Amino acid sequence: MLAGRTLYIPQMAHATARMMAAAFRSAGVDATITPDSNADTLEIGGLHSGGEECLPHKITLGDFLRICRQPGFEPAKAAFFMPRAPGPCRFGQYATYLRQVLGAEGYGDALVFSPSSSDGYDGIGEGAAGLMHAAWMGVVVSDLATRLLLKTRPYETAVGAADAAFESALREFETALSRPGRAASEQLRELVDVVTRVRDRFRSVPAEYVKGRPLIGLVGEIYCRHNTFSNEDIARRVEQLGGECWLADISEWIWYTNWCRETDCLREDGWFNTKFLKLKLKSHYQHQYEQKLLAPVKDDFVGYEEPHDFREVVKRAEPYLPMTGSHGEMSVSVGKAAYLHGKGADGVIDISPFTCMNGIVSEAVYPAVSSDYDELPIRVLFFDKVATHIDRDLEIFLDLARAYQRRKKIARRYPAFFMEASG
Questions:
Q1: Do 116 and 16 belong to one domain?
Q2: pLDDT more than 70, % of the chain
Q3: What are the pLDDT digits (tens) for 131-177?
Q4: Are 289 and 319 in a shared domain?
Q5: Do residue 422 and residue 319 come from a single domain?
Q6: Judgement on whether residues 89 and 190 belong to the same structural domain of the protein
Q7: What is the C-alpha separation between 395 and 421, in angstroms, rounded?
Q8: Radius of gyration (Cα) for the chain, nearest Å?
Q9: Contact residues for 349 (Cβ-Cβ < 8 A; gap 6+)
Q10: How far is Cα 234 from Cα 356, in angstroms, rounded to an integer?
Q11: What are the respective helix, strand and coil percentages of the chain, to the nearest 5?
Q12: What is the rounded CA–CA span in Å between residue 376 and residue 306?
């Protein structure tokens, strides 16, 4: 399907997109990421949208069309990676609309490659042995590198050192992931060695780890919360205002889709069937890979532990959004907000595109969540890349988080290398 084509992967998350491209290259596919988004992205995406689509659609469409407009572009040698998901979210129509626009603009020979969450994105691996293993390991290490960045950058004493360590980490992970013709076990061993070197590189970043910064959880729609162009680089802005961010991982969506498939299979076919066994084996191996890759940084992530079992997140969302009737990111965001309260977070920001269904539903139930969890400050911020008062809104929210920090009932746990604030 992809032979002879260059596969372009959108930067939903910069780090994860690079790892996915590396994973495809390991399977013999010429893959790269889309260029960094800019003003042209919004202009071109807007010209080919109806105006009511959400921001991620406009950005991905604009970036893909920018590639098409490059001199020498050959549609028959290009493919665009645009996953799908079932349900009412407009994301499920991105790929269909992209095909329509490409055809109308004379680029109909370009391929739109669209694996779906309905099968746990297993379609990614069709015809490419080991690609699914490499892709999953890529997601894990990209999340790991991002967590190290956000844990280090607020405390650095040499500006830019954490960002440099992050970029170096991504290059090394890319190199390890993209080598073709290796068994998954061999690839895993090499990546564990890289994780150790990346850990040591971040540990060497000049920093003063002093306790006291408000810890702000970032949840919400997966594209906007990870794409810094979409969200005005909100994590960096929070850091500049004196806070620290805990960004919900990309991998949490994979764990959630795994859980949905297993739950649906149990409801439809019961325990004893081949399909359910395959699903459990897949989750088992994903857990094994994740545990081995995270083992070298266990001490660095004390107090930053992600849920060991994703059912913990789902269970926390159940009182507000029963899973039998509200599948989707809103349940994950609400459950994760409650989970972060238990880790000592001082506030939670839900990042969503303007008019996003998930953001609107979550916003409706967050007052109840806040009330049940010691009045934890929770705020939904909607983004559409037009006039915004993001700095004002964040300043107010950080003040609320600091007030909550002084009266909260669950103390935050820190890694051993953090120091008490003087005075």
A1: yes
A2: 94
A3: 889 999 999 999 999 999 999 999 999 999 999 999 999 999 999 99
A4: no
A5: yes
A6: no
A7: 22
A8: 21
A9: 216, 217, 218, 219, 220, 234, 238, 378, 379, 380, 381, 397
A10: 18
A11: 55, 10, 35
A12: 19
Residue 170 lies in a domain: yes
Q: How far is residue 389's CA from residue 237's CA, in Å, rounded to a whole number?
A: 12
Q: Do 117 and 185 fall into the same domain?
A: no
Q: What are the structure tokens assigned to 327, written together?
A: 């599948």
Does the pLDDT value for residue 124 go beyond 60?
no
Residue 228: pLDDT over 60: yes
At how many degrees (to 10) do helices 357-372 and 329-342 cross? 30
Q: Tell me: pLDDT of 398 over 90.
A: yes
Share of the chain above pLDDT 90, in %: 74
Cα 379 to Cα 401: distance, rounded to the nearest angstrom:
11
Sign, CA torsion 101/106/117/314: negative
Check: CB of residue 224 under 8 Å from CB of residue 195. Answer: no
Does this model's pTM top 0.85? My answer is yes
3 state DSSP class of 211: coil
Q: Please compute the mean of the pLDDT values over residues 60-81 and round it to a whole number.
A: 96
pLDDT band at 327 (very low <50, low <70, confident <90, very high): confident
Q: Which of 88, 123, 158 is the last residue of a domain?
A: 123
Q: What is the DSSP letter of 411?
A: P
